[in-house]
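FAQ: What does the model actually see?

It sees only this:
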Amino acid sequence: MKYFLGFIAGWLLILIAVLQQWVFIACGAVLLFSFLYPTHSLLLLGLLLDGYFGAFYGVPVFSGLALSWFVFFESLRDQLNVNREFGV
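And it is asked to produce this:
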């Protein structure tokens, strides 16, 4: 239950930080979230943010950033020795 609440709290912190344009807090929260939880959940967050800002008629920036961050961080995860379960 503690893992789930931390996951939801981190996800909401990233969402609120992006919506309020707190760039440094959002970047730090994404980095911390990536170490503790699976990064594929950030793909959904990118889709939600693009939908909120109406970016599907243009270039979906947040989805592209989320996808590139997912590929980049998952490729580095093994080299950084970050466990995939429960951020241990």
